[in-house]
Amino acid sequence: MKLEVTGEPCGILVREWVDFDPAFEFRAFVTNNKLNGLSQMATMDVILHYPQVVAVKDIVAQKAIEFFNTKLKDPLSAITSSGPSKSYVVDIFYELSTDTWYLVELNPFKTSSSGHLFQYHNDHDMDILLNGPFEIRLAETTSSENIEND
Fold it and tell me: What pTM was computed for the model?
């Protein structure tokens, strides 16, 4: 495959694969260099209830804010400050057993990403994502329509 880029330099980063529990992957919403929202991820728009995550919700919220402020905020600010929007989303994963966070991917806000448990068309949700205060959202149940019966 040939890649041609005009103007700005382009790079591809390939890292070692890390197997992880999808229950602990989150989408973080950042505006003006402030983490305003954290949502559990959905797969194919299916939101599952993970009791093991709900049980440590407060710890996850505190550790996510700490991870963002100490490891992501400044490096990502250098990337995102030149864009037209000061908002972006970052997917992060928490390994509870080792108290380790991983950056999964960085995306533009709203244009190519799902809000998962935050709805972009909901004014209240957008106010939280753009202005705060910080809120974490986790599914408290799994809808019966998402469970297959054999």
Answer: 0.83
- Cβ-count burial of 90 within 10 angstroms (0-12 exposed, 13-18 middle, 19+ buried)? buried
Of residues 28 and 16, more confidence is placed in: 28
Q: In three state form, how does the secondary structure of the chain look?
A: CCCCCCCCCCCCCCCCCCCCCHHHEEEEEEECCEEEEEEECCECCECCCCHHHHCCHHHHHHHHHHHHHHHHHHHHHHHHCCCCCCEEEEEEEEECCCCEEEEEEEEECCCCCCCCCCCCCCHHHHHHHHHCCCEEECCCCCCHHHCCCC
